[in-house]
Specification:
Blueprint (H helix, E strand, L loop, with lengths): L3 E12 L2 E9 L4 E3 L2 E3 L6 H13 L1 E16 L2 E15 L10 E6 H7 L3 H12 L5 E7 L20 H14 L6 E4 L3 H14 L3 E3 L12 H17 L3 E6 L4 H9 L12 E7 L2 E7 L1
Parallel strand pairs: 1-6, 8-11, 9-10, 9-11
Antiparallel strand pairs: 1-2, 1-4, 2-3, 2-7, 5-6, 8-12, 12-13
InterPro entries: His_Pase_superF_clade-1 (IPR013078), His_PPase_superfam (IPR029033), NUDIX_hydrolase-like_dom_sf (IPR015797), NUDIX_hydrolase_CS (IPR020084), NUDIX_hydrolase_dom (IPR000086), Nudix_hydrolase_domain (IPR051325)
GO biological process, one term: ATP biosynthetic process
Keywords: Hydrolase
């Protein structure tokens, strides 16, 4: 039996009562819950979460950190809902044909007392335990660029292949949801090209930064990873949302330094990570 895939979020805003989060009421079920909805065909869960929050809660929201996924049965079928913590940045996108007839903004503890389902309580408590997010970085490995062995020119000049150009467009669609304020790239042509569709979409320049380059002959991989991690922390300390295009030999080691954990941070080409920081301290790292 195929599972139902859905996505949503804990959307927050500051208020005189502190942080408030958004709940929606569905008259069909007479329940209060976090805004969420089913994925459209081939839709990324993060894109679905942003879209559903706009349609159900009339909120333009910016993702900040990954929260848990919850699993339960709906109409006899297994259902998985992925959640993100998101900051409300404006209104708009409401669809009047949705199942929602009321929206409330409440302090977290009041929201916990109102929601109908235990899994929403779990997600809200995880959000409450998350340190305040002051900066978000999205770190991508460059998209596909053919075979190094069959490229006759300098490796730094190797361009994206047709599949890589498609991946670069997908990176742009996903990364634009974060509303980045700056774009940084390793110096290799394929890294810069990976961000070019996003740069065109947002009308932002791409800053080339060798801290995200793979080691040159004679350079130590761990030293390059440490330098990449330090540069990410510097960018996070500015409090901005930044997208980085880096190389595969740098990203795993840099994330190990930032997290202090020896997890599997290998990153396929064209894929990446969502990093949430409190000042220059990494508090959350999840695959996009």
């Amino acid at each position: 039996m195929s599972e139902i895939r859905a996505a949503g979020g804990v959307v927050w805003r500051p208020s005189d009562r502190g942080v408030e989060v958004c709940l929606v009421h569905r008259p069909r079920y007479n329940d209060w819950s976090l805004p969420k909805g089913k994925l459209e065909p081939h839709e990324h869960p993060l894109a679905a979460a942003v879209r559903e929050i706009a349609e159900e809660a009339d909120v333009r929201a910016v993702p900040q950190a990954r929260l848990r996924s919850v699993r339960y049965f709906s109409d006899g079928r297994p259902k998985v809902v992925d959640y993100w913590a998101m900051r409300a940045v404006g209104a708009g996108g409401f669809e009047p044909e949705t199942e929602v007839d009321d929206i409330r903004w409440l302090p977290v503890e009041e929201a916990i007392g109102l929601v109908t389902y235990p899994h929403d309580v779990w997600v809200l408590r995880e959000f409450a335990d998350l340190p305040p997010v002051t900066a978000v970085l999205a770190v991508f490995r460059h998209a596909r660029a053919g075979n190094r062995a069959t490229w006759s020119g300098p490796d730094t000049a190797r361009p994206l292949d047709p599949a890589g150009l498609v991946q670069a467009g997908q990176v742009a669609t996903l990364a634009a949801l974060l509303r980045p304020e700056g774009l940084w790239s390793a110096s290799a042509r394929r890294c810069v090209q990976t961000l070019e569709p996003l740069a065109a979409l947002l009308d932002l320049p791409i800053e080339v930064d060798s801290h995200f380059d793979e080691p040159k002959p004679g350079q130590d991989v761990s030293e390059c990873a440490l330098a990449g991690a330090a540069r990410m922390a510097e960018l996070a300390a500015t409090g901005r949302t930044v997208v980085i295009s880096g190389q595969g030999k740098v990203i795993p080691g840099a994330l190990e330094h930032l997290t202090g954990a020896s997890d599997d941070y290998r990153t396929p080409k064209g894929e990446g990570w969502l990093l949430a920081f409190t000042t220059d301290h990494l508090t959350s790292a999840t695959r996009l």
